[in-house]
Amino acid sequence: MPAATEPTWTPPPPEPDRPSAQIRRILRLFRPYRARLGLVGLLVAASSLVSVASPFLLREILDTAIPQGRTGLLSLLALGMILTAVVTSVFNVLQTLISTTVGQRVMHDLRTAVYARLQEMPLAFFTRTRTGEVQSRIANDIGGMQATVTSTATSLVSNLTSVTATVVAMLALDWRLTVVSLLLLPLFVWISRRVGRERKRIAAERQGQLASMAATVTESLSVSGILLGRTMGRADSLTRSFATESERLVDLEVRSSMAGRWRLSTIGMVMSIMPALLYWAAGLALQTGGPAISIGTLVAFVSLQQGLFRPTVSLLSTGVDIQSSLALFQRVFEYLDLPVDITEPAEPVRLEKIKGEVRFERVDFRYDERDERVAPTLHAIDLTVPAGGSLAVVGPTGSGKTTLGHLVPRLYDVTAGRVTIDGVDVRDLDFDSLARAVGVVSQETYLFHASVADNLRFARPDATEEEIVAAARAAQIHDHIAGLPDGYDTLVGERGHRFSGGEKQRLAIARTILRDPPVLILDEATSALDTHTEQAVQQAIDALSAGRTTITIAHRLSTIRDADEIVVLDGGRIVERGRHATLLERDGRYAALVRGDARLAPVLP
């Protein structure tokens, strides 16, 4: 087990991006799709320009075609308005299809990037982070961006083009009415920015609450969580706790929905009032002897004015949505910016033929390198395990045994010294070589919610059915699998709960046998087995270990009596080393540990 002094691991928080820098970073997400976005821009521009023509056609109908009784011109103008509507609709559908596709691809890229970054994070990150929190970043945060990512680019281009084209058309109709229509725009912009800042703050709180709820659900509604809750009589308490979390979310959802709602409704109200004001202003100008405005011009202008406010409000709403989404992007970028401590070197070494010699050369390790006050988990470890040899590591809980095993497959990097395989520092190896070289059977057996065969093939996707069966036989689990109604197609259940602890451990051993690594790390590999099953599995492990380098980490000392060398760890240091019989004769730490194992008591003098 890791040392008891291991501190809580938290990644150094990244510096939050300024809004302008963050927006630039968001725009870079769309860079691979520039061509498609360019096409969207052309469609949007064409659609906006075509739609602006409709009020001019309407003016000609009202001022010329109808008063003069020109039926042919009326028909052409009416047909033009119909074609304008059809073309605009077709362009809108096409731009929606392309922009939605681009938006979904960007979301896919984000999800994949976050998942890939999490795959690179050190093991300590996952031992100190709630699973629901990780899931929430991928599902809720990225999912919450969907509307913004899929429609923002199109909305910005469409509305900017519409506003520009509409203002030009309005000026062409009557500049005085245009000035009146634009007077209130600065107020609208100010209102929208205020609302955007408020919603951004609430959105950050909301996503944090969603993450907390996801973590609660993940932990309490897992098979283990249900078993613990029911056996401890805490089901009602868990329900009340969830209800409290849900109640907080209700409040945040209401606040998010209502944030700035009254201010934004003011904009809508003004939009509805403006046509009346324009009609009033035109009529007043006519009665006071001012320049006359034709009915067609006035109706066309009001149509354009309504067309102006719609994209303007949409632009302002898009700005509000972007500000709200910045909180979500910030949470996602926090994960993308997490420092990766364990990386592949620029020019990695690839081992083609792996013999399997493992060395620990003056190895020190501490979980928090920055805190010198915390004692190192491992200190001055010097060990050599020859190719094909066996090393057993024993010691009290918290002595650093599991940590020592984790350094070989590079689940952690050493703080000082180095760990080598065939003379090559594991930090210099490419990840593929390291994965092929080292197999781990952990005390934490994990099985996917899939069939037995799929769980075994996770080690070797190209394994044949015969190879899977052979691995299962070697792990003493084939007969049990064959006796199941669906055999190797049996679903193992969530985290393998359809199997006993011993059966899951043997499946994990079969999975490692199938991978056939030259170096084996057996971390309490038989800890969940009864005496009879342990003996059977130990036979399989002995057969598997023949000719392979094996490092066995054990509390149950019956599994390591025949090791080539046994080392005793205490406080992260090697306090004894030797073979089983030699260490017993010394009557030191190892002999004391053996006395604590009732099954080995008879071997003591």
UniProtKB/TrEMBL annotation:
Top-level lineage group: Bacteria
TM region positions: 37-58, 70-91, 167-191, 264-282
Keywords, in A-Z order: ATP-binding, Membrane, Nucleotide-binding, Transmembrane, Transmembrane helix
Coiled coil: none
GO terms, molecular function: ATP binding
Localization terms from the record: Cell membrane
Span of domain ABC transporter: 358-596
Residue intervals of the ABC transmembrane type-1 domain: 39-324
PANTHER family named in the record: ATP-BINDING CASSETTE SUB-FAMILY B MEMBER 10, MITOCHONDRIAL, ATP-DEPENDENT PERMEASE MDL1, MITOCHONDRIAL
InterPro entries, per database record: AAA+_ATPase (IPR003593), ABC1_TM_dom (IPR011527), ABC1_TM_sf (IPR036640), ABC_transporter-like_ATP-bd (IPR003439), ABC_transporter-like_CS (IPR017871), P-loop_NTPase (IPR027417), Type_1_exporter (IPR039421)
Name recorded for this polypeptide: ABC transporter ATP-binding protein/permease
Membrane topology: Multi-pass membrane protein
Pfam families: ABC_membrane, ABC_tran
Native organism taxonomy: Bacteria, Bacillati, Actinomycetota, Actinomycetes, Kitasatosporales
